[in-house]
Amino acid sequence: MALSALLLAGVANAATIKIATVSPLSGSLTPMGSEVKRGAELAVQEQAGAFKALGYDLVLAPYDDQASATLAPQIAKSVLADKSVLGVVGALNSSVSNVVAQAFAPARLTMISPASTNDQLTQNAWTHFNRVVAPDAAQGVAAAGYIADELKAASVFVISDNTAYGNGLTRALLDNLKKHKVPVAAYAGASTAAQIAEVVKRVKASGADMVYFGGTDDTGSQLVKALRAAGVTATFMGGDGLDSPSFLQRAGIAGAGVVYSTVFGPVSAFSNALDFNDRYQAAYKTKPSGVALYAYDATNALLAAIKAAATGNRALPTRAQVSAAVRKVNLPACFTADKSRCATITGAVAFSDTGERLNSRVLIMRFDDVLQPQVAKVQTVSAESLK
Prior knowledge:
It comes from Deinococcus metallilatus. The chain has helices at residues 2-13, 30-53, 72-81, 94-104, 136-151, 164-179, 193-206, 217-229, 245-251, 274-284, 290-309, 319-326; strands at residues 15-23, 56-64, 85-90, 111-113, 129-131, 156-160, 184-189, 210-214, 235-238, 259-262, 330-331, 349-350, 359-367, 373-382. The chain is α/β, with parallel strands linked by helices. Helix 8 (217-229) packs parallel to helix 9 (245-251). The longest helix is centred in the first third of the chain and has 24 residues, at 30-53. Residues 1-11 have low confidence and may be disordered.
């Protein structure tokens, strides 16, 4: 009885640290949102033992935002109310990240997004918001250069899906197309079936030899299918919202030839991702996309910060302490030849004073005729160059 009482006391004294994920776990963006949760989940599972040794129970708390900025305030309220949540991995969508980041600011609850690329997110003087992906400005630079120098487009019809992400991506592209003196046929927003039907007519009438789409894969797949069904053969290019297995599942053969810039890229593009890929497939019976890799790295960066801020002795560090520690994280690049398991898959992780990753990369990808993604170009972007 005495031994049982001691064991129970030990369990009771263990403090719980929660890592929250905020991403769509229902709705049309579930495939990508689930990648965020799963990537974070693997990192939490791997580090649970180390935290246990420090006197903490490490727990993942997933929140479903349904990719809705309207639902984001309630999500943020729920996360803030749970005092054991010391950090957030997410959100997926820039519009959601904007809302929850504003809500988290007074409490300095840190968040590291594995996917939100809207430029404004790191221009608000927030000390608690960070991301491990390159912003829209970096994609705009890379995409415009490729359109001008490699595709040599005569005219580009630019379309946004009317989200914060899509608007930010297309604005960045427009600015850079202007620098390259590439003519823009028109700019339009399209997210509903009726709007897509209307914009397809406008694209066809414009004669543009290039269509650029800023938005997510659910709308992008509908748009490219509608364009091809209408006989429009213009090259179709998008941003990292198209970098998802669900894009091809939805677009089918219409995805052949589609070009996209991405801050993610295929798992095969990372030389040290083989072990992660095997663990992911063993756990979830499916292959990961780049989103899962970035979520994994974001979570490991957050956990490193919590360890640095923790005193042990089962006392929880404050949210402000964790937030400050995130900006001091410096995880080195790791390779499979290393004896220990890699804490990073996408390269070294460290953050600027605005929350941008110090060095990130943008890939230009193209789906070939059998719908296999091929790397066309790789570009490294520093946070300093984006100022």
